[in-house]
Design goal:
By secondary structure, the chain is an alpha/beta fold. About 25% of the residues lie in helices and about 30% in strands. The protein has one domain: TIM Barrel (Alpha-Beta Barrel), CATH 3.20.20. The chain contains ten helices and 22 strands. The strands form four sheets. Strands 1, 2, 3, 4, 5, 20, 21 and 22 form an eight-stranded mixed beta sheet that branches. Strands 6-9-10-11-12-13-14-15 form an eight-stranded parallel beta sheet. β2 and β3 form a beta hairpin.
Length: about 375
């Protein structure tokens, strides 16, 4: 099969090209109109499939209590956002529920991950949070101080598919061996929901921490006499930084500053969306937390006390907002939802339109509305 467009995102430029697909792999890139095509997308934007690396739910279902039927429904839905790969994000909840959810996710990945977007791993955002206000909406009663044993238990529960771990480094009390251990196992380690000092972050990074969770949110801010966690996220060039690019979690100027600091290779745009995704503005009881949450017209969820608590925004909407409203250059923004998460997780065959890479492709109009999606070379049915 050959598809073409005048705007294929290839080598960080939009170019008129043809993309040849055989089975589930991109086999060649040709000049525009070189061969007869199966589908001509005209002026539409042809991108690598998107990856949401920080997301918790959809359609009144949550990753933390995921059932196999819901996981299938979720994966089938995700291409509607242009998503072809997703990381299942777990936050602070009762341990027995977390273990059950991770077992379901692991079993689904091993046996049933054949419909819609692919789950590429588990993200343990909670319960390794701090005890201070930076824990945000995370429930302190379910906090766990991580150890190598804990990591093994969580990883075993999901059949070895834990690829991303968030840790509040000040809770380690100067002993960073758990970060060393996670990195030895091939997991990315993010610093988040933390009130750590810049110096503590620096030590954690020396031991292998290589990312920051939803930068600016749930972390100690930047001060000119104490750079804090935000300062560390900006300062360390080798670390990735998540950004919820919706204009509500982070002011658009602050988002632009972070993008300039991280550049085109280390920014990662996420949704942090919850089970309420799919609902309109209003007050709801969220399955994720069992608490009332208010969805604003901006798509952002807030607790009764005003604390921000995720969103119902779509990843393609955040991509569009990053480019059109936050002024982030399109190369940085597109990389932030395609190749950068793959590099963070050490996945070397997804995230680019390139020969030998998986044929995960998303087609958008100029406003980044989804028009077509291919997963493993198969055209997906969109809602």
């Amino acid at each position: 099969m050959i598809i073409q467009s005048k705007n294929v995102y290839f080598e960080e430029k939009f170019q008129p090209l043809q993309v040849e697909i055989k089975k589930d792999v991109i086999t060649n890139i040709y000049q525009y109109n070189q061969f007869k095509v199966d589908k001509d997308y005209g002026d539409l934007l042809v991108l690598p499939g998107l990856c949401d690396s920080h997301v918790h739910g959809y359609g009144d279902g949550s990753v933390f209590d995921a059932t196999k039927p819901w996981l299938k429904k979720w994966c089938k839905y995700l291409p509607n956002e242009g998503i072809t790969s997703v990381v299942a994000g777990i936050s602070c909840h009762p341990l027995d529920k977390l273990m059950d959810a991770m077992k379901n996710i692991g079993d689904y990945m091993d046996n049933d991950n054949k419909v819609g977007a692919h789950i590429i791993g588990v993200y343990e955002e909670g319960p390794f949070i701090c005890s201070g206000k930076e824990r945000g909406a995370q429930a302190l009663e379910y906090q766990i101080i991580p150890t190598k044993k804990t990591i093994d238990e969580f990883n075993k529960a999901c059949n070895g598919h834990m690829i991303y771990v968030m840790i509040a480094p000040e809770m380690l009390n100067g002993n960073y061996e758990v970060i060393d251990y996670c990195r030895k196992l091939g997991m990315a380690v993010s610093l988040g929901h933390t009130g750590a000092s810049f110096e503590v972050c620096e030590e954690a990074i020396k031991h292998g921490a290589n990312s920051f969770t939803h930068t600016y949110n749930g972390m100690k801010g930047l001060h000119h006499r104490e750079p804090g966690v935000v300062g560390a996220a900006m300062y360390f060039d080798n670390c990735y930084a998540e950004l919820i690019a919706d204009g509500g979690h982070v002011n658009k100027v602050a988002a632009n500053i972070l993008a300039k600091c991280k550049g085109k290779d280390h920014l990662i745009i996420v949704t942090d969306s919850l089970s309420l995704k799919g609902r309109t503005a209003g007050v709801y009881k969220a399955d994720d937390f069992g608490r009332n949450l208010t969805i604003g017209k901006d798509g952002i969820c807030r607790m009764d006390n005003g604390t921000l608590c995720g969103s119902v925004r779509k990843l393609n909407q955040n991509l569009a907002y990053a480019i059109k409203e936050e002024g982030i250059d399109y190369v940085t923004a597109i990389n932030a939802v395609t190749i950068n998460p793959m590099r963070l997780f050490g996945i070397n065959n997804k995230g680019l339109i390139k020969t030998g890479y998986k044929a995960d492709i998303a087609v958008f109009d100029k406003d980044y509305e989804v028009k077509a999606v291919y997963v493993d070379g198969k055209l997906q049915k969109l809602a």
